[in-house]
Design a protein that fits this description.
six-stranded mixed sheet; five-stranded antiparallel sheet; elongated
Length: about 210
């Protein structure tokens, strides 16, 4: 009898695994950069170094529902760069079984965090934590962390670093959500002080009319 129960339990586990919904994540890159957008979200506390790079957009009818960040941990006396990249994860109509990722230009230091998702809805506004310029002989890190607000109201915060302060929230995407990203990046400084990601702005797209 014990062996029969063992077989039944094993079949239950296997059937549960077979029925588990699979999630596919595909890198979109700049393939959809021509998507029409309604407005741009920005904030005023970004830092001064580097240049604005290329935009990357979610495919048509896809919106950002989650994100992950690339963060370099504390280097304890060596050159710190803190936040190096932001990756948006795009979904269509709340279906999270097939996803796209977009990130614009990212820095070269640190590791990507596990994704965080809105419980429902899409990303609609953001706030960034920035360490101000540290002077001629200081170690600049610029952007340290980011928060997003979801259309369903929860706030998500990345596992970034703690230097600097959060500024004001951006305006909000109305009648839609965040659908694109563009980063301001200081390129690699070859042994000098790197700050990597200095600022970011996001595109808002309107939801399609029913």
């Amino acid at each position: 009898m014990a062996s029969l129960f063992t077989v039944v339990a094993l079949l239950a586990v296997l059937s549960g695994g077979l029925c588990e919904e699979k999630t596919f994540l595909q890198r979109a890159g700049a393939a959809f950069s021509g998507r029409h957008y309604k407005s741009m979200l920005s904030v005023k506390n970004g830092e001064q170094f580097g240049n604005w790079t290329w935009p990357e957009m979610c495919p048509d009818q896809f919106f950002a529902v989650g994100f992950s960040i690339r963060v370099e941990s504390n280097q304890y006396g060596a050159d710190d760069t803190a936040l190096n990249g932001i990756r948006l994860i795009c979904a269509k109509d709340g279906n999270r079984s097939f996803l796209y990722s977009i990130e614009s230009h990212t820095g070269y230091f640190g590791d990507w965090s596990n994704p965080q998702y809105c419980p429902s809805g899409v990303l609609t506004s953001f706030q960034i934590r920035v360490e101000p310029h540290q002077g001629l002989f200081g170690d600049d890190t610029a952007m340290n962390n980011i928060k997003f607000r979801c259309s369903s109201n929860p706030t998500l915060e990345g596992p970034g670093m703690d230097w600097g302060e959060y500024g004001h929230w951006s305006q909000e995407c109305l009648d839609g959500g965040i659908c694109g990203i563009e980063t301001k990046m200081e390129e690699y400084q070859y042994g000098l002080d790197d700050s990597s990601l200095n600022d970011v702005r996001f595109h808002c797209c309107a939801k399609p009319q029913q």
